[in-house]
Amino acid sequence: MRVTIYEVGPRDGLQNESVTLPVEVKREFIRRLAEAGLTTIEATSFVHPKWVPQLADAAELLADMPREPGVRYPVLVPNERGLDRALEHGVTDIAIFGSATESFAQRNLNRTLESQFEMFAPVVERALAGGMRVRAYVSMCFGDPWEGPVAPEQVVRVGRRLLDLGCYQLSLGDTIGVGTPGHVDALLDAFEVAGVGPDRLAVHFHDTYGQALANTLAALRRGITVVDASTGGIGGCPYAKSATGNLATEDLVWMLDGLGVETGVDVRSLVATSRWLADLLGRPSPSRVVQALSKEA
Amino acid sequence: MRVTIYEVGPRDGLQNESVTLPVEVKREFIRRLAEAGLTTIEATSFVHPKWVPQLADAAELLADMPREPGVRYPVLVPNERGLDRALEHGVTDIAIFGSATESFAQRNLNRTLESQFEMFAPVVERALAGGMRVRAYVSMCFGDPWEGPVAPEQVVRVGRRLLDLGCYQLSLGDTIGVGTPGHVDALLDAFEVAGVGPDRLAVHFHDTYGQALANTLAALRRGITVVDASTGGIGGCPYAKSATGNLATEDLVWMLDGLGVETGVDVRSLVATSRWLADLLGRPSPSRVVQALSKEA
Asked: Distance, in angstroms, between A36 CA and closest chain B CA?
């Protein structure tokens, strides 16, 4: 068995850190991630700098980013203006960021749940026409700070609309980290009933309540083979009540190595990168594997 | 479904913290754990104070410990001298601490792997004659700092001997936290082949590499219904390369609540206890749930 790790550290990780790194450090971060064996690295975002100042250098980053053969470097694109910029910079893979709930759509996208599709439709259509691959994040799939638990059927309705637009994959996000393995099963059941199999789905967990790896295990046992993670566990969600961020790539690789699942990723190389990055970000990595292997050194 | 949480904070947790708490604080800790709904609370240990000075007050603790109806308060007993003291203090449940590996038996028990059974035999025999229940820990079931990975068959050989002595349950310990879910399955498979079902087994995971909860999920799905955990995730193993200790009871309860598994335990009550204890121990709780719910307050 093989699992593809979709690395989100440079985008989802760095956009939620309080320290903004210089562009050359970001390039080095991305170079190191590819060197460690990651083959999908979300590099940055064309969200307006007013909202995400940490990634205001997206154009500059992409202009001179080290690219390895066989590695994809998707970029998050919120709208048509972002797509224009991605097209200008030769991006081949983009991701759009949808919401499973009305409350988060209004607060994060400044749109209603329904009108998000009108915003995304021309983005996906033009991206596909330009030969791009388009992934869709579905955020708040398990719970929402304003609405509480989110019904699987609601997530499926949103997800199907995004697939129908032409996205090749949905990344099911537990943006505030409240999900547990039974909820993962229920959500994957609901997608299966709707005719969407695990080959169209990825999972994206946050470790706010320590559940990210257990949730991932539940998803793997349901046939999911693409897992989002952030090297060092950097990041976090501004809407969640903890500094704990994304599932750490190192903790994921440790489990997959133990399970005999191939990833092509060298965990010790990632740990070295996370230690280097922790100094620059001014806080220790929350990853257990980074902490444990650092004591070994 | 119902899971019994075997709380090890007052013993396995506190024995590995650098701060030694006053006996009245330990009594209050134990009282609060019972108040939160825990029904099995390992209270202390009669190991020689030279080895575990943090629990040197075991006799004093037990002399005036608050006991709730329906709650068991096992005590760790290393040998016959410890058993004598447990009998003197009216203890009804004890635990012995065996090793799955030759190296750890020699270093921790100062015995060979084989001679540990000679040491335990009179302890278990006399304890049973005195009407006690005897649980056996099997440490280093997944890996050992000197020997590396431990074969499931080796663990089963040790475990069967301990059950044959008259122990009612084995607690399978990942003392240094290196196990992953596939290894859990392999170990439970090996016990099943040997005729030892999940009703005789408990699991005891450390979160050194972030795997504790995923490993627990794997065990639950194999029918295990007794899980060891430490409130606040306090403790740690002196032989492991990280300060990260036992699986945090709060992170476990969060998952079980989400799975709809009954435990009778109130997670917010435990979080309040962990916050109180963290001040006294002088370090923040490593539990993700404690961290997240503390920000909420």
From this structure: 19
Confidence at residue A37, expressed as pLDDT on a 0 to 100 scale: 98
Nearest chain A alpha carbon to B221: A218
Q: Decide if A44 contacts A11 (C-beta within 8 A).
A: yes
Interface predicted TM-score of the whole assembly (ipTM), two decimals: 0.93
Asked if the structure places residue A132 within a domain, the reply is: yes
> Can you give the CATH number for the domain in which B41 is found?
3.20.20.70
Higher-pLDDT residue of A198, A244:
A198
**B167 confidence band (pLDDT: 50, 70, 90):** very high
What is the percent of chain B with per-residue pLDDT over 70, rounded to a whole number? 97
Count of structural domains, chain B: 1
Average pLDDT over residues B131-140: 98
For A288, the closest of B182, B210, B254 (CB atoms) is B210
Among candidate residues A237, A248, A265, A267, the one labeled active-site is A237
Cite the active site residues of B: 237
d(CA A78, CA A51): 11
Closest CA to B65 of B37, B38, B90: B90
Strand ranges (E), A121-244: 133-139, 143-144, 148-149, 169-174, 201-205, 226-229
B126 neighbors B86 (Cβ within 8 angstroms):
no
Q: Is A147's pLDDT higher than 60?
A: yes
The domain in which residue A202 lies consists of 5-228+237-242
